Amino acid sequence: MSAPMGRASRQSVILELLRSHPVQSQAQLAEELHRRRIAVTQATISRDLRQLRVARVTAPEGPRYLPPADVSDAEAQLQVLLASHLSHLEVVGTILVLRTPAGGAQMVAAAVDALALPEIAGTVAGDDTVFVLARTRGGAGAVERRLREARERGRRWG
């Protein structure tokens, strides 16, 4: 029999599940939680994923949920996001312009921010465009190379 669980404990289990193996849907996540005897509704899962800032990305092997970036997985998350969401990258002076499919810019900007690169002064994300402001032209070039390399590693990862 399933029992209700506190939010913090349930969210901790969700993060552990997302880090331990690919989860492709909320239904799959609900099944995994029920296997662990955690009573949960789809609405609760949706709210938990939003509160945890979990990203749903389209990786080469299909869609999956990624836990929020932390120091250990920021680069991996960026690689997956760039491989699946970056459609165009251009440098204009000290600004990098990243194009994504509709709705993808916020996730890409958050992943770039999580790297905390000293060359980057900040990011601004719309719906399908991210502006990355580099501190110098040389820094813009370095960030461009890093993002292109990360996208290629993400493509090979899948």
| Mean pLDDT over the full residue set | 87
User: What name is given to the CATH topology of the largest domain?
Assistant: Gyrase A, domain 2
Helix and strand content put the structural class at alpha+beta
- How many domains? The number is 2
Task: Name the shape in a single word.
Answer: elongated
Beta content: 15-25%
Q: State the major sheet.
A: 4 strands, antiparallel
Look at the structure and give the CATH class of the largest domain: Alpha Beta
Radius of gyration: 17 Å
Helix content: 40-55%
What's the quick description here?
By secondary structure, this protein is α+β, with helices and mostly antiparallel strands.
Written overview of the protein:
- It contains six helices and six strands, in the order H-H-H-E-E-H-E-E-H-E-E-H.
- It has helices spanning 7-20, 26-35, 42-51, 74-85, 105-115, 137-157, and strands at residues 55-59, 62-66, 88-92, 95-99, 120-125, 129-134.
- Strand 5 (120-125) and strand 6 form a beta hairpin.
- Helix 4 (74-85) runs antiparallel to helix 5 and helix 4 packs across helix 6 (137-157).
- The chain is elongated.
- The mean pLDDT is 87.
